[in-house]
Structures are given as structure tokens and as C-alpha cells.
Amino acid sequence: MLESYIRSRLAEKKILLMTHIVIGYPSLDASLEIVRTMVEAGVDLMELQIPFSEPIADGPVILKANQRALANGVTVKQCLDFGSRVAGRFPIPFLYMTYFNILFKFGVDRFAEHMQKAGLHGAIVPDLPPEEAGDYLKAMGEKHLAPVFIYSPTTPTDRLNAIADVADGFIYCVARKGVTGGQTEFSLQLDGYLARCRAATSLPLALGFGVKDRSDIKFLEGKADIAVIGTQALRLMEDGGVDAVGNFIRELQR
Amino acid sequence: MLESYIRSRLAEKKILLMTHIVIGYPSLDASLEIVRTMVEAGVDLMELQIPFSEPIADGPVILKANQRALANGVTVKQCLDFGSRVAGRFPIPFLYMTYFNILFKFGVDRFAEHMQKAGLHGAIVPDLPPEEAGDYLKAMGEKHLAPVFIYSPTTPTDRLNAIADVADGFIYCVARKGVTGGQTEFSLQLDGYLARCRAATSLPLALGFGVKDRSDIKFLEGKADIAVIGTQALRLMEDGGVDAVGNFIRELQR
Amino acid sequence: GYYGDFGGAFLPEILVATFDELERVYTEARNDPIFWHDYEQLMSSYSCRPTPITFAGNLTRHFGGARIFIKREDLNHTGAHKANNVMGQGLLVKRMGKTRVIAETGAGQHGVATATMAARFGFDCTIYMGEVDVERQRPNVFWMEQLGATVVPVTDGTRILKDAINEAFRDWVTNMDTTHYVLGTACGPHPFPEMVSWFQSIVGKEARRQFMEKEDRLPAKVFACVGGGSNAMGVFSGFFEDDVELIGVEAAGRGLDSGAHAARLCSQDASVGVAQGYKTYFLQNDDGQMRETHSIAAGLDYVGVSPILSDLKEKGRVRFEGATDSQVIEAVRLTMRKEGVIPALESAHAFARAFKEAPQMSADEMILINQSGRGDKDIFTIADAFDDPKWKQFIIEKANRYHA
Amino acid sequence: GYYGDFGGAFLPEILVATFDELERVYTEARNDPIFWHDYEQLMSSYSCRPTPITFAGNLTRHFGGARIFIKREDLNHTGAHKANNVMGQGLLVKRMGKTRVIAETGAGQHGVATATMAARFGFDCTIYMGEVDVERQRPNVFWMEQLGATVVPVTDGTRILKDAINEAFRDWVTNMDTTHYVLGTACGPHPFPEMVSWFQSIVGKEARRQFMEKEDRLPAKVFACVGGGSNAMGVFSGFFEDDVELIGVEAAGRGLDSGAHAARLCSQDASVGVAQGYKTYFLQNDDGQMRETHSIAAGLDYVGVSPILSDLKEKGRVRFEGATDSQVIEAVRLTMRKEGVIPALESAHAFARAFKEAPQMSADEMILINQSGRGDKDIFTIADAFDDPKWKQFIIEKANRYHA
């Protein structure tokens, strides 16, 4: 179970690190190499994004990665094979991150079954709010997979509670308005927001987006349970290759 | 008096010839040369067209001649000087042909006075129907100048009569619909038209347009009193120079 | 056929019978209430009459004076008031049993409107257009041809509007048995000025009624641009009997002192003359030869003007003003930004003048501007006037693809 | 938020509150008779609603079957039915107290309409437009900019309409406090499909009333083109309760078998999916990745379609057909020549299909074609489609002058 893994890790670390890759970007081989590097650098869990042609909630960096991966011809089947491979090989929990159409076209039940067989732990589907998630929740529940849902600063309290009722594993807290990869002011406002999140759920809280360095991580300790490294890792990879990503992740945990 | 001149000439010739030039086309000097040539070739009377920027009733050949003359900078004053000069020098009657705006801007009375002093015999103003011609008729009458009016195949009989009441000198009969310079079928239809004209007026009848050779003239003998040579002379002049025009006119009377 | 000292019918004899017939049929139609009813029906089912009056709240606030209203002739089918005239004449052509129409066009709008009417009525159609205008106004030529009309470029004279009129007359003189000449504005020999004004009076009739219905009183001033004068005659005619000031706005081009303008009634450069079959103020030299004119708006650069407007000027019933090219561009820009409405460059002359006078008026007064046409037909002209580099780049790239 | 099996609101969490507010304000407005009254007033004074129904007598005679009528949305301000939707949403934006609008646009018409609405209401305005479309549709970009909007070329994805929609959502996700996203068609997350259809229902309401007034009965069939589906929803909604056959016409492009089309409801190439926030038929591959589409009409080449239309297809209430690019060009040509009316390439799809069915019908039946927009905005496309050499020459010469 994802939540219990997170709890046990939190007994050892003040805050966990979750990283993100787009499967097949820049290539399937490279993706494997990035996962290996990230795991070796000490990340605690990982999102594997199955690319989609209309990634409506992603910012320009991840958007381009989606498009490049698709332009390279990456298929959903290849992504699932990839997930299967890394989940079998590396000792941390992996989640799929993708848009609902990927699951819908594949078949939600079949998708969950695949995940279970491959040893994935859960999924984040940013365009699937609980209201639309009936079949998905059922399938994930049956396969004991964690449906990770999202909190945002605009989510009212009763809705935070309602989301908590159906979510599992952890809650992904969006730190601010906007798509992935923008700047976040880590301010007092954030404290209030996270306190509201904390009050609404007993699940661990992951916080996106925009962690840039060790001091950001330090700031988040005690506030969130998981720091999400998304766009920044992708940018570093593009600028300095896989090694730069490894160094960055190690640096964050120094 | 223009009419009596025409009558006396008709005692000597079966049909008279009236030619036409655009003053200042291709130049004032050339215009003088053309007049001299035409007179020497035996024409009986001549239209001197004062160029106008909007010659609405003229076809493409005469239209272009108007425009070229104006582009050369020919003014109304130069045209009147020219008329004065040729009327003083050559022994045939000259008429001005122009559009009403030239008279209107110059002053209709003043224009008629100029004509009288210069020895012109009359004028043809194709955009001035009798209904609009009050001032003009008065001025021409006072100066004993012939206001030549136009008959057309579309003119109803009572209107032919009304025009005859105010016209003087001769009547200019348009042979067909259309602007100057088009083709005319000299057919039986023409006989009927000219008979209608003849019945409406005792004035001599000039017939435009489209005389091309001696046989056309022959055909018109006994039907009309004056054959009008307009566009054809201009075309010949453009193709073969002044001499060609002279030869053409002599040929018509052979 | 006279309006005060102006108008008349200075016709070649061969056309007199044709004009007699036209006047007869027009007079019959005018005295036949069914005709006007049919005309209104046609305009309400084929175009979208009555066109609305739009309150320009943002412009009103911007200028802080009189409340500004816009009569929306731009919403007509084919995008301008021209539709009113051509459809009306189309009905007359049917009455006369003729099968072919011809027209002159300068900016091309009247040509497009006539070609449209001809398609609708099933008439053959030939449009005369100065060669210079054919080159400038290719989009309109394209539409005329697609609508089934033959567009004849006129290569004589100055190769612009007045030359196209001359050429249309030459066609008519030859083909009057089958053909009606759909003159595009309230000019030319009688009965055209009166007849075109009559068809366009639908604009003023509506506007007056709309003001009475919505505001229960009339505007203090009505502004209309004046080229030939048909849109001005149209809107003004609703208010002749009222205590409403009427302002006709001519093209002051590069300035009334520059010589490069088309102001016949608000400048000293014009004088009374007779040309193209009627008597009015013309921009002509002392010999009576017509002069070249200039306006940023192709529809306003005509040498003559409606003889009825000349008469109204002499009588003092209409005041005439000018708007310069640069004032006009500013007026277009402001109207777009403030109201989301794109006046044709022609219409924008009326806007420009209204913008000068509105701030001097009180908030309980109202003014009406006649938006005779929409500006999006003018994209080549407006883009050039605004000197838009991205537009130029687009055209250059398009041309490159055509070369390839 | 479902229409049968279709629709829904597949929203990023951050937008849920914004949609809640939108739905609340929309529902209030819908239950407030004053709102619809205000909307009708606005559309009758700023645009020219009610738009007329034109009887196409020449086309009727040409095909010798049913009597053909045309609903004239082309006469709207900005030249298409798009105006109905944007002005309606503008009123909602005012209710919500927001100060900025954003929109996607493909062909540019919705962008121009939104920029126009923003100017009129005094909103800031940003328009997202695929880079490919920015290049193709420069005239519309020019007008949007002149109307005061910022046009952002979208360089991601396939750089066309769907990518502009994605980008608009990204903006909204960031700026929802001040900003409303004026979605241009009856697609997207609930309540957009229903809300846009509601605003467009003014078309069908009018059309039904006009038929009853003038003909005292209803047409046998109503034809509308289907891109996103808003004009079809608009006109169809007047006839849902009646015994009137409703035919939606999609872009069959180079043929339904060619793969190069945009037919989602009349071809086997589409399947149900979830994207851009809603569930409907999409042109997608087996993985659920969206495919490239093709149509001669830029406004019809969208990958999705109104979920309400998907539902109406499943229920059999609307029949869907395709019209190919070449049939469409023929339909434009014929309609211009016969009626003097220039349908937009989009609208011409409905004409093309109607022309196939009209001859099979009896003379006492009537059909209605919704002319969603006017074609003269498409001159670059239509001139290219007709391969007009004189147009090309004009553009080349224009480009040469810009070079000089």
C-alpha cells in the first residue's frame, strides 16, 4: 500500500522526494537511464507520465516533452511495458501520471489490471476530478491501487473533505494557480493553504510545484510530506544531462 | 447663314462632306495642317472639337484624341484662337463641337460672342438637349450662329419636330445606337429613319457615323445632305499621316 | 429635373428616350405604395433591414459630450448602404423588362452590390472599373467575377471612377434596349439623383422612427460622409422637416489647402459645372476640365457631388465639413478599440467630424453618425494606412508561395 | 453535466471552483427572464438580430425540388453566428465582475468576435491562435490586434485550433480570478456545451418563428454545418420538438475514405474519448492520441464535436452527413451565382448537402440551410481554392511594392 510505504519512509526522512519523467522523452532508453539515476540519487517515489497529445494542465516544458515523445512514436503499450520494467527493477513505488483519455481508450479496468500486474502503486490523472471518476475509483480500488487526487488553493473546504474521501496514497497539493513549471512564492499564504489541506485529510501531502534548491526543501519540511520535483529536473536534464539531474537530487537531500 | 451655304453647295454637289478634328491632337500645328489638307481635298464644312476631359458620347478613338490633346496642355483659349485662325483663313464654314461644360465655364454668351467675332458658323454640343439649352439658344440666336442639334433612331416623332423648332444650320442624324466610331449597317432601316427625319424638319440632314469609302457616300446620296467623316479620318491620320487623310477625302468624291 | 440650380439631364440625344422610360417607370413605382412595400420586404428578407441604431456608450464617455449613436448600414448584405440602391433599381429593371445591368464602381463596393443584385435577379451584368481601381481593389473584383459579373477595366482617362462612369454611359448608349445602367450614387442625370436618394431614404426613415421609438425625440445632429452623396441623402432625408442639424463630411485628404482632396462643397477649389450628365459643383479647372482628386477612401474621391446636396448647401440646410486622411485613420482606430465596430474609411469621415463636435455638446443632446459601410473590406487599404509590418510580411510570404 | 453518455467536466482541480462559479452565474442568468431580454436587446442593437430568412428562389428553380430557405447568420456583426455566443458570454462576464477575456480561435472568426465583444464591453483580451493559423489567417489577426486584443501564436503541438484551446486553458488555470475563457463553440467542459448552445438557440428560435409567421408551417429539413457544433445546435434547437429532420454536415475533406477529413459523427474514423475537458467523439488513434484533421474550411477541422450532438446522433435525432472540399467549392460557386450570397466555406458544407437532397424532395416541401457566416472573410482561401490567377498576380504585385 502506497500510504503505508510513505509513512514508513517518513519515519526515516523529514520529507520525501517525488520526481517525474515523461516516458519516452527524450527516448525510451534515456527514460530508463533517468529513472535509474533518480533512484540511485535517493528519490522516494516517482511519477511516470504517459504522454498525451493534449496535456491541458501541463506547462510548456512538460508539454514539449509529451509532444517529443509522441513524435518519436512512443505508444501507450511501450509506456506500460516501460512502467512494468522499472517497477520490477527499482525498489521505490512508481505511479503513472497521465490524462484520462489514455485510461479511457485503453479501458479503465484493463489499465488498472495492467498496473497491478506490473507492480505500479497508483496514478495521478489531472483531468479527472472525483465527480467523473466513478469507474476509475472502482477499478483502482479493486486492484488496491492508489488513486491520487489533487488539491488546489481554489478548492473549498468541503470539497477538500470530499476529495479526501475517495483519494488514496497521498494527496497532490498544487501550490498555486497555473500550470506545471511556474514560479511559486513560498510564503505564509502557503502555510495557511497546507494547514487547510492537512485538516481535510489524514493522507500524506505532496506539494508541487517549483522546488529549485535545498532551501526550498528545508522550507517545506514539516509542512508537506512529499516534495515534488517535476519541471526543474526536466530542465536540468535538458541542459546538463542525466548526471546533472542526479547531482541536483542528491544536493536537495544533503 | 449656315443653312443657305449648305443649300447653295448642294446645288453643285449631290452630297456634302463634313469632317472632324480634335483641336490640339496630335498638336496645334498638326491640327492646322490637317484642316488645310482637308479643305484642299474638298470638304464642305468642318467640326472643330474642343477637347473635354469627360467626352461621354465619344468612342475610344476620339476619346483618346481628347485626352492626348489635354495631356499636351491644350487650353480652351488656344482652341478658340485656333478656331479664329482657321475660320479666317479657309473658305468653308467651321463649327465647334464640344461638351456643354466648356461653354458653361467660359460663359455661354461670351462663347457665342467669340464664335461670332471669329467667324465660326455654329456649334454641336452632344450633351446639351434642347430642354437644357435655353441660355445657349438665346446666345446663339443673338449672334446668328447655328445651334446644331442631334436626331437619333430612338427619338420619337414629336420630339424630332420639337428639336427641329430650335435647331438651325442642319440636323446631325446619328445613324445608330452607340458612340462615335462604331460600325453602321447601311440598310433599308436607315431609309425609314431618314425619311422620318426628313419629315420632321426642312433643315439639311447630316448623317454620322462610319463612312468608310466612296460606295458609302454613293449610298447616302439622295438620302442625306451631308456625310460626316469623323473617326475614320482620325484613324487614317494616325496610320498614314495627313496625306492619307487628304487622299481618302479626295477618293470619297471621285 | 432640377434641385434649385442643380441637376438637370444633360444627355446625348440617343439616351433621351431611355431616360424618359426610366423616369416613367420610376414615377409609377414611386406613386405605387405596393412598390415601396415590396422594396422594404426585399430589403428585410435579403438584407437585414431595418438596420439597427447602436448606442456608442464608450465613445460617448470618452468624449464626454453628446450621446453618440451609430446607424449601422455596415450590417447590410454586401456590407454597405449600396445594397439599398441596387436592390431598388433591380426592382425597377424587372418592371422595365430589361435583362442586363451595367454599373460603374470606384472602390468596388457598388460593383459588388450590383453584381450581387444581378445574380439575385438573374440579370447579365457588366461592371466598369477604372484600371487603377481594378489594381487597387482586386478583392472586390474577385467577388464581382465570382458573382458572375464581367468586370471591364477602363483604360481611358485617369482610369478611375469618373472614367468608369463615362464608359458605362458609352455602353448604355449602345445597349439601352436591353440594359439598365445602375448608377451607384445620387448623381448623374435626372432622375438618378432623386431616385437613388429615394431608395436610400429607407435609412433616414428608419433612423427617425428608431429615435422616436427608443428616445422619444430626435438627435441634435446627423453626420454622414459625402462622396457622391447617396448615404448622406439617405440618412438626411429622414430629418429634413425636423429641427436637426445635418452635417455632410467630405474627404479633406491631405488638407483643404493641399490641393490633394475631394472636397467639393466645403472648399473653395470646386465650382459649378456640367459633366456626366448633370450640373453640380465639380473639382475642375477654369477651362472646365475635371481635376484629379485625392482621398484615403476610394469611395469619396469623386469629382462631382449629388446636385441635391449642392442645392442643400446653397440653401443652408446642410453644413459641409472636411476630414483629413489622418483624422480618418485616428477615427477608425478609436472606433474599433472603443466599440468593436470597424467603419469603412468612407464612413469614418463622418465619425472624425462627429468626434470634433460631440465634446462641445451637452450630455442631454444626441448625435447620429451614419456608418455607411464596414471597414473590413478595406483591409489592404487600412493595413497600408496603419503601415502594419506583419501584414506586409504575410503578403510577401503569400506571394512567395504563389511564385513557387 | 451530461448529455446522454457525453459531456461531463474533466477539469484540472484548480479550475473546478471557476466552473462552479460559471455554472452558478449561467444558471442564474438562464432562470432570469431579464437576462435573455437584455441579450436579445443587445443583439438587436449591436448586431442585426433577428437575422432574416432569405428565400433562395433561383436555387429552388435550379434544383427543382424543395423550396430552399437560408438563415442569414452571415449578416451578424463580425459576419457569423459567433457573435451570438460571444456577446452572451460577455454579459455573463459582466455579471461575474471579471475584467479580462481569453479565447481560442482557429479560422479567426471567433477571435475577431471575442476581440469585438471585449472592445465593446471594455475587457482586456488575449486570443490564442495556433501558429499555423496565425500565418494562414493574417487578416483576422490584423483585425483582432486593431480591436485591441493581444494575439498569442501557439507554437506547441500541431499549432492549430486544439492547441490554442489547450493554451487558453493554461492561461485560465493561472488567471481565473480576473479572467473568463470565452470558449467559441458548444464543446469543452460543462456548462460550455449547454451554455453556448443556449446563446446560439436565438438562431433556431427566430427561424422557427419566422417560418410560422411567413409560411405558417415548418421546413421538412434543416441543414447546418458541424465543426464544434454551435451553429448547428443553435438552429436545430428551434426544431427539436417538431417533426423536422435535422441534418448536421461535417467536413468530409478529401473524402471519408481518405483519412484527410474532419468527420467525427458521419465516419468510422472517430471514437469516443475524453479530451479538452469533455467526453465526445474524437478523431483519435487507438491509444487516444488526437489525429490530424483536414478540411478546406478552417472552422470545421476540429478533432472533437459538441457532446450534445454526439448524444443526438446516438439518439437518432440528428442525421450526420459529410461534404467534401470539392463539393463545397461547387456549392459556394453556385450559391454566389444564383443568389448573390457568399457562404463561408464552413457554411457551404450545409449548402452542399442540401443541394444533394433538395432535388429528391417535393415542391411543397421546404428546407432551411443555416448560413453560419459570410465567405468574403475567406478571400485568401477561396481565391486559392478557385486558383484565381489574377488574385495571385495582385498579391505578387502588392508584395513587390512592400519590398520596394
Describe the structure.
Chains A, B: GO terms for molecular function: tryptophan synthase activity. Chains A, B: Its EC number is 4.2.1.20. Chains A, B: It holds the Pfam family Trp_syntA. Chains A, B: Keywords: Amino-acid biosynthesis, Aromatic amino acid biosynthesis, Lyase, Tryptophan biosynthesis. Chains A, B: This is Tryptophan synthase alpha chain. The complex is a heterotetramer, with two copies of chain A (254 residues) and two copies of chain C (404 residues). In chain A, helix 2 (28-41) runs parallel beside helix 11 and helix 4 packs parallel to helix 6. Chain A has eleven helices and eight strands. Chain A has one domain (2-252): TIM Barrel. In chain A, helix 2 links the parallel strand 1 and strand 2 (45-49). Chain A has 254 residues and is of the alpha/beta class. An eight-stranded parallel barrel of chain A has the order 1-2-3-4-5-6-7-8, surrounded by eight helices. With 404 residues, chain C is α/β, with parallel strands linked by helices. Helix content of chain C is 46%, strand content 18%. Chain C has 15 helices and 14 strands. Chain C has helices at 13-30, 33-45, 57-63, 82-96, 109-121, 131-136, 138-146, 161-175, 192-215, 230-236, 307-314, 325-339, 345-357, 379-385, 389-403; strands spanning 2-3, 6-7, 53-55, 67-72, 100-105, 124-130, 150-154, 179-181, 221-225, 245-253, 271-275, 278-282, 318-324, 366-371. In chain C, the strands form four sheets. Chain C has a six-stranded mixed sheet, sandwiched between helices. A four-stranded parallel sheet of chain C has the order 7-6-5-8, with helices on both faces. A two-stranded antiparallel sheet of chain C has the order 1-2. In chain C, helix 12 (325-339) crosses helix 13 (345-357). The radius of gyration of chain C is 20 Å and the shape is globular. Chains in contact: A-D, B-C, C-D. Chains C and D meet through strand 3, helix 5, helix 7, helix 12 and helix 14 of C and strand 3, helix 5, helix 7, helix 12 and helix 14 of D.
